[in-house]
Amino acid sequence: MRTPTVLLALALVLAAVLGAGCTTPATLSGNLSGTSPTSTAAAVASPVTTIGPQAMTPAALAAFVQKASAYVDAVGEQAALTEFQKQDGRFSQGDLYIYAYDSNGTLLAHPYQPNLVGTDRTNWTDARGLPFVRVGNATAGNGGGFIAYLYPAPQNGTIDERALDAYQPKIGFVAPAGEGMWIGSGVYLADMVQNGTGPNAVSEMVDLVEACAAYGRSEGRAGAFSEISNRSGKFVDRDGHYIYAYDYNGTLLAHPYLPEKIGSSLIERRDPFGMENVRALVKTARAGGGYVVFVWPNPAKENRDEIKIGYVLPVDDTWWVGSGAYLSEITGTDASLRSSAP
Prior knowledge:
Elements: H1 2-16, H2 58-75, H3 77-84, E1 92-93, E2 96-97, E3 99-102, E4 107-109, H4 132-141, E5 145-151, E6 168-177, E7 181-188, H5 189-194, H6 200-228, E8 244-247, E9 252-254, H7 277-286, E10 290-298, E11 304-314, E12 319-326, H8 327-331
Antiparallel strand pairs: 1-2, 3-4, 3-7, 5-6, 6-7, 8-9, 8-12, 10-11, 11-12
């Protein structure tokens, strides 16, 4: 009774990912780059069959993780973890691989981080401070869904988390598996852009930040702040992306949706997972700019908390600008965070 159900689940999920694939990270607007070769994941059923080299979409990524979850049910947790741990296994193909955690934040399997298996990663953060494991655990605990984070690509059979300049934005998907366990995988945004699977929202958002930084240098603070705070101005685009401006002390200088906060310092603000997101944005801008993944209320979703892929640039040595694309824009699904982290 359970066996036919599992086999049916495997067949359905496999059919959903037959067009899935992953390619080498490429340059994305905003100096996002990577170099690792990738291929697609193999099918669950024996014999192992390599899927063709098409681009991985968010939907295909979700199906890949769900297939791995069904594999756990089919072969048991220990056998599945052993398979997930293999760099040449059926669920590990270059940049595309499965990792596993328990609900306490302990890493159970990772093909490129064998030395970390068995360690508590609850408080681990990405290069900008996002508590990735807390976010993944909370999302999987609500039945699974998409997440986003920064992470280095595998190089020469390993991942060096100390190489802070190697972190790139990734779209991830996590799902519960077995008893008290969750699994996940991710695709680099650069792969998706190169292969035409998106996300245009991120590229458009980066273009908006670059245009506003140039505008601020040419028009000065007063003119720029007025335009940034205008909901009908040139820095609120048709898709709802908007610009915000801060100084390096975390004082909000201009914002179209938070006029009541302008002039206030938000440097101590923490999201539900404990990340000091404004401080992270300030630090990134001070260092010359770049990507930050953080949690922020989405005004288009009744101000529910949602993961946001942000991009910031300095204007001069006194202030900076930034914007972001919400995860729901990229995945086409509701990405609201339904509960806070423990």
